[in-house]
Structure formats: structure tokens, C-alpha cells
Amino acid sequence: MSVTLTPELEALIEEILATGRYADAGDVIEQAVRQLEERERRQRLQASVAEGFAAIERGEGVELTPELWEEIEREADEADRQGLPINPDVCPYTSRRSRADGAARPSGRAAVHHPTVGTSAACDLQAGPLPRV
Hints:
By secondary structure, the chain is α+β, with helices and mostly antiparallel strands.
């Protein structure tokens, strides 16, 4: 790939390189693109949270009971067994860990569709105590 930079952007990259924090212009650009991706991911998550609070304000909230949590976790396990992709916004980790029954499942968080909760629900697959809603 070839990219044409404005003189101002090229000068900025040179200034950054002069600090010694990066080995070359490619490293600077790679970090900039990663930060852009992270900012966009954060914006998507903030919009999702705002949408969730708005739904609660409209009275569309669902109580997160132990039974519902278990159902969400079962759906996440089934999606994992089927090899379905997990939304990287809620499951940025790709490492896996073993469960007591020998099956593998993702560490971190997974998103599953749940008809009661909404189009997708995030659940912590290494959950400790059930969070209060």
C-alpha cells in the first residue's frame, strides 16, 4: 500500500519519531490506526450503553435474575460450541480456557442474542457473583 501524506502530517510523524518512542513511520501509523479503532469501538459501546439506559427509562428493562443469567450463559456456550463469531466489542480476547467439564470456552466476555434482553446481551464467562441491575 502506498499512502501520500500532507507535508504537515509528514512533519508531525518526523517529530514523533524524534522522540525515540517509535522505530519508524510504519510504527507511528500502526499506533495511530489502532487508537482510531479503539476510539470507534468506545463510541459504539457508549452508544449501546446509552441505548440500554433509554430502554430502561421507557420501562423496557428486564430484571437480571440468576435464571436469566444461566440462560444467557447457556446460549453463549452453545454459540461457542457452534463456532459462531463473538462480537469483538464485547469479547476482545481470543484466548480460551478449559472448564471443569473439559469443554473450552472464551475467556472475557461474549455476546449472544437473547429475545428477552434484546438483540445481544453480553455476559462474563468467568463470572463471579451475579451483578445487580
